[in-house]
Here is the input.
Amino acid sequence: MTLLGDPFLHLFNFFPFLGFLLRPHKTILRRVEETCVILRKHIQASKQTINANYLRSYTDALLFRQQEETKKAMSMFHDANVLASVLDLVMAGTETTATTLQWAILLMMKYPEIQCKVQEEIKTVLEPGRLPTFDDKKRLPFSNAVIHEVQRFVNLLPQVPRCTAVDTHFRGYFIPKGTTVIPSLSSVLLDDTQWETPDQFNPDHFLDADGNFVMKEAFLAFSTGRRNCLGESLAKMELFLFFVGLFQKFSFRPPPGSTESSLDIGPVPGFTLRPRPQMTCAVPCD
Ligand code: HEM
Here is the structure.
């Protein structure tokens, strides 16, 4: 992800003939291949142990379809597509949710009064020892608002390059088929006509005057349209369960010797905007 944000890579994408000088894509392709080696082994192992009555994973589900469709002349579930789909899940699905949770911990350390409010809400809804379920979301509006505000504020994936599949007319512009288009999600997530305080971390953006959770049309962290995030519903579940589960059990504080004000909430430039590496103390709640 760091390499994907490399300015030399962008330069290479615009001027491929400079590839022999810049070469950033070589490293990326090598890293992707290293990941594929691991995944091929995993897929092979799954093939050998798959049980049609008990599919253990996404990989199993893809391989099961592959077995079912062996007689079809044009199955989409051939080995290369199974590998590409598992790779997508690993690349698109791991970094995004893990980094958002890192941001959530950092922002809760930075704003301890918000962290306290989250923990009070969790305490009133979850009996001691009961882990959260996704159904609890309705009864935890403040925590839900905080998670959405983390996603809005950190603007994790500000730009995903796309390409026009057909000649397109858009707002008076003609965009020929095959043109690279890079929508800017920052322009919506930080739009001052849509958010009261776009540059501040403010969970009230997602709450009404009575403290109920309110979804906003401009919340486009997962983008929109036909090619929006495929993992949106999974990501929302993961974020909610991990966030509530973590803050139910721990308070996160700056380590001894540092204070809230010394925490850096600026991002490291890259394909995904990551927080700078910082330490935290996870103090078990009583
Ligand atoms: C916090 C979590 C996540 C965020 C903020 C996020 C955000 C995004 C964004 C902005 C896009 C680009 C959509 C577009 O160009 O219109 C995208 C695409 C995608 N995401 Fe996510 N994502 C997250 C989690 C996940 C997870 C958990 C998975 C899979 C399990 C996933 C799989 C994908 C895939 C496969 C695409 C490409 C979809 C396509 O090309 O049709 N994402 N995501």
Summary: The chain has a mean pLDDT of 93. The pocket of protoporphyrin IX containing FE is lined by residues 88-89, 92-93, 96-97, 100, 156-157, 160, 162, 221-223, 225, 227-231, 234-235 (CB under 6 Å). The beta strands are 162-163, 168-170, 173-175, 180-181, 250-253, 267-268, 274-275, 281-284. The longest strand covers residues 250-253.
